[in-house]
Amino acid sequence: MVDLVRGENALIGAVVGEARPVAADGDDLTLAFAATDQFLKKKAEDPANRLIVGEALRAVTGRRWRLSYELREELGGNGAAESSGSTEEDWIRRFIEEFDAEEIPGEDGERGAQPATSNEKGA
């Protein structure tokens, strides 16, 4: 997921790479930053950046999420440093671990939703 975001916007890709998924409830997903990362949280909350992250999550998980961001003391910088350079595989593993989820492969054994072609978009 982080790589998808980086492809769209390198800065927000670096920002979201520092976040950890900490809660999911229905369509609500909470990503947390270390308590000292107020600047990163503010960048992530920008509407344009929120849209980029939301679309990347949709591409990876096949569903839309209402994102919220928070600061967490327990991350204390260690969680952020650990997640630097996160790959799509890392994000999927973290989602599975954090939310006791299971991975459901697509029709061709692929992960998540497949990108739409121009014909599928009605163009």
Q: Please name the CATH architecture.
A: 2-Layer Sandwich
The largest beta-sheet arranges its strands as 1-2-3
CATH topology: GMP Synthetase, Chain A, domain 3
Instruction: Please give the CATH class.
Output: Alpha Beta
Share of helical residues = 40-55%
Order of helices and strands: HHEEHHEHH
The parts where pLDDT drops under 50 for at least 5 residues are 78-84
What would the average pLDDT be, to the nearest integer? 79
How many strand elements? 3
Biggest sheet character: 3 strands, mixed
SSE diagram, text form:
Elements: H1 2-8, H2 10-16, E1 20-25, E2 28-34, H3 38-45, H4 47-61, E3 66-72, H5 78-83, H6 88-99
Parallel strand pairs: 2-3
Antiparallel strand pairs: 1-2
Helix pairs in contact: 1-2
